Every structure is written in structure tokens, then in C-alpha cells.
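Workshop exercise sheet. Pairs work together: one partner reads the sequence aloud, the other fills in the structure field after running the prediction. Swap roles for the next sheet.
Pair: D.N. / O.F.
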Amino acid sequence: MYADLSLWPLWLIIVLFVCAAVVIGWFGVQMTVVARDLAHASGLGEAVMGALFIGAATSLSGITTSVVAASGGFPELAISNALGGIAAQTTFLAIADIVYRRANLEHAAASAENLFMTGFLITLLSIHLLGVAIPEFQVFSIHPASLLILVAYIFGIRLLAQTHDTPMWLPKRTSDTNTEQQSQPGKLRRGLPVMWLKFSGYALVVGAAGWSLAQLAVPLAANTGLSQGIVGGVFTAVTTSIPELVVAISAVRLGALNLAVGDIIGGNAFDTLFIAASDVAYSEGSIYSAFSQAEVFWLANALLMAGVLLLGLIYRERHGPANIGVESLLILLLYVAGLITLSVAV
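Structure field:
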């Protein structure tokens, strides 16, 4: 697929890239509106809806890209696409913080679910770190960490649902704390089956458009002579993460702040499964043995950014400088510094 597209005229690739981005923008907004309505009508709540359903839906393009890359013999591209996507999406949360003018987003969107999901994300990334430490340990060419992370993800989602139903921690309410009742729409004219059908349709369109972006990003980057780690960690990671950015900003503008934060953190948690899926698709042994310096760097930086986000959610700075929380500013700096470091040292 990549080789065929590389033969296309550059102007055509750019036009198709822009068209796919426009499709994601429009359908992403529609999906966000339906998801907000579903969160309230179904009783799932915005954080769970964002973390589980939107996070998975907007990640369809990314997991497809990683699996196709791994099966095609490009393991570094598959890994860096996953880990670079997590770093990029965490940065998108900082952008959403800038868009929300009333207060620091991490203060306003405080919830037990978002705290849980951020800690959960750090746990899943740490499992990958264990896999990197013992890369040759495998069973039938699959690393045990790949199975462990799948089991951990399923168990964690179950705990997330329990945290929503019976939270043991509650944030201190302030005048800037957003509640789901504030973003609750008026009387819904559609039933649950219709809303689920519309959400599924929008999600499929967004996923397909995101996958198209990933395919177009590779030939766009191919002429630069960059490594798989840079192409995957920057070009495909950012392009396949555009749906998360659109949904996060749309949710913030709708006032569904927990949906915005849940979308990013939940999408990141789902993205950790990319490496497990790529491990199964990779035919030359454990994919952890293919980690290069660039992929290890992306993993470490993603862990650091998630840690900063968790601290921000706990500390809950109310009003940061220049309408951005200190943790969001640090996340932006970490991502930019990471890009510079990779371009110079890796």
C-alpha cells in the first residue's frame, strides 16, 4: 500500500490528505454530540463514554496502521505509531486546556474516573517497559506482556465502570468545577438504539478517514529519508490522532469536559493495545526485540507525560498563567523537547 501511494503525484496526496482531515473534522463533531447524548441517556457517564467507546472508536485508524506495519515487516513503525500517538494525544489535552477559557481543564474536569484512567494508563505503559526489559522472553513468538496487557485492559475497564457507579473518591466542588448535569442536553428525541446506530456510523467514518490519513502520511514522509521511528512516532502518530483532537475540542466547546478528558486518556489506554496486536501480527518473533532507541524514548516520554497529567489532575490548579495550567504547559514542553531530541540524537 505504501509503495503504491508513493508513486502518486504529491499534489494528489496532499489534496486527499486535506479531504480526509475535513471528513474527520465534520463527522468527529457529530460523533461527539451523539456521544454526549448517549453518556446521559444510557447512564454510562461522560468519562466512561469517552474512555471506552470514543477512545476505542477514534483509535481504529491507529491500530490498523500498527498491525499492517507489523505484518509487513516494519516493527519500529508499528511501535512508534502507538507510543508516539499516546504522546501526541496527551499534548492534545493541553491544547484543549487552552481552548477552555473559564478555568484550568484539569481543575474543571476533576473526577474519580479520570484519575483512575490516568493511573491505569501509567500501569499499562509500565507493562510495555517490562517487556522491553526482557525482549527475548516469548511463547510461540508472542511476548507474555502482550497477553498481560490485554487482560489488564479488560480488568481495568471493569474497574472503571465500578468507579463510575460507586466512586470512593470525590473531587472538591468549586464554582469552576464542571458537572455532567451542566452539559446534559435537553429532552432527547431519539431512542437509545437510534443513538447507538448513529454513533457507530460516525465512528466507522472517522476511523476509515483516520486510516486513510495514516496511509497518506507515509509517502509524504518517505521523501525526507527519516527513520521508521520518526515517521511512525511523528507523521502517522499525529495523523491517526487527529480524531482525538477534534473530539476533545468539540467536547470542550459543548461543555462536556469529562468527555473530552476521557476521550484522550481512554484513547491512550486503548493505544497501548496496539503493540500487543502488532506482536501477534509480527512474524519474526517478539516485537519487543524490535524496540530501537527511538521507541524506548517514546515510551519513556509517554510515561513522563502521563505522570505529569496525573499530578495535574490531583493538584487541580484553578487558573494557570496565560489560560493554561502548569501541567499542560509542561506536557507541551515535554512533547516539543522530545521531538527536538529525537531529531538530533536518534
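Discussion prompt: The first helix runs from residue 2 to 6. What would you look at next?
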